[in-house]
């Protein structure tokens, strides 16, 4: 049975410390509810951009962990980001890939290759320091501390079901520009 995205996000919220999180597409509505005042910037509206946005934040803030909540459909839009991230070698980047085999946000159409796409092998081939898949929630909880502390770039392919809400079914949130301004203010306060 696939992991429930909301359960995964709740576990991350409890363990993330001061990490900057980059939720995208179907993780965004739940993350806004679970961690409304955290250090995060949602990547909705430019599909495939979460990993590149996460890389920029990781390079700009090398002493702070950056955790990207990517989707399999989103990452397929920008596979080149794997090589770019691997080449930059940000030690503080954790790339969590929520794999459900569909473009959930736009109506659950199957992504090219469906569930057979192996993002772990792609990340390894691109040069990520570590990449592996997690299919069981208990295994996820056991490995979560190392996901948030191991030297990156690290990709973890999380086999999940569909989220309860998507950006299309759960309106709300702030514009990207407002999110960036809010993140700057929070980082200034955090020092």
Give structural notes:
With 191 residues, the protein is of the alpha/beta class. The protein has one domain: Rossmann fold, CATH 3.40.50. It is built from eight helices and seven strands; from the N terminus they run αβααβααβββαβαβα. The protein has helices at 5-15, 28-34, 50-60, 72-77, 80-88, 119-126, 137-147, 176-190; strands at residues 20-23, 66-71, 93-99, 102-103, 109-110, 130-134, 154-159. The strands form two sheets. A five-stranded parallel beta sheet has the order 1-2-3-7-6, with helices on both faces. β4 (102-103) and β5 form a beta hairpin. It is globular. It starts with a helix and ends with a helix. The model has no long low-confidence stretch (mean pLDDT 84).
Write the topology of this structure.
Elements: H1 5-15, E1 20-23, H2 28-34, H3 50-60, E2 66-71, H4 72-77, H5 80-88, E3 93-99, E4 102-103, E5 109-110, H6 119-126, E6 130-134, H7 137-147, E7 154-159, H8 176-190
Parallel strand pairs: 1-2, 2-3, 3-7, 6-7
Antiparallel strand pairs: 4-5
Helix pairs in contact: 1-7, 3-5, 5-6
> What about the largest sheet?
5 strands, parallel
CATH superfamily: Thiamin diphosphate (ThDP)-binding fold, Pyr/PP domains
C-alpha geometry: globular
Distance from first to last alpha carbon: 42 Å
Rg over CA atoms: 15 Å
- Characterize the quaternary organization of these chains: single chain
Short summary:
By secondary structure, the protein is an alpha/beta fold. Helix content is 41%, strand content 17%. It has one domain (5-184): Rossmann fold (3-Layer(aba) Sandwich), CATH 3.40.50.
């Amino acid at each position: 049975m696939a992991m429930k995205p909301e359960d995964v996000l709740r576990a991350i919220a409890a363990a993330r410390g001061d990490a900057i999180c980059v939720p995208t597409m179907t993780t965004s509505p739940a993350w806004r509810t679970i961690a409304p005042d955290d250090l995060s910037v949602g990547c909705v509206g430019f599909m495939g951009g979460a990993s590149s946005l996460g890389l920029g934040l990781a390079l700009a803030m090398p002493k702070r962990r950056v955790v990207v909540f990517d989707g399999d459909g989103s990452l397929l839009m920008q596979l080149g980001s794997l090589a770019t991230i691997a080449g930059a070698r940000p030690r503080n980047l954790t790339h969590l890939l929520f794999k459900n085999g569909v473009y959930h946000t736009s109506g659950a159409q199957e992504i090219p290759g469906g569930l057979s796409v192996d993002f772990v092998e792609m990340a390894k081939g691109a040069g990520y320091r570590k990449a592996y898949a997690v299919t069981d929630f208990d295994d996820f909880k056991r490995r979560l501390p190392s996901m948030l502390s191991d030297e990156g770039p690290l990709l973890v392919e999380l086999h999940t079901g569909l989220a309860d809400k998507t950006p299309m079914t759960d309106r709300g949130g702030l514009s990207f520009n407002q999110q960036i301004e809010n993140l700057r203010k929070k980082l200034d306060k955090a020092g």
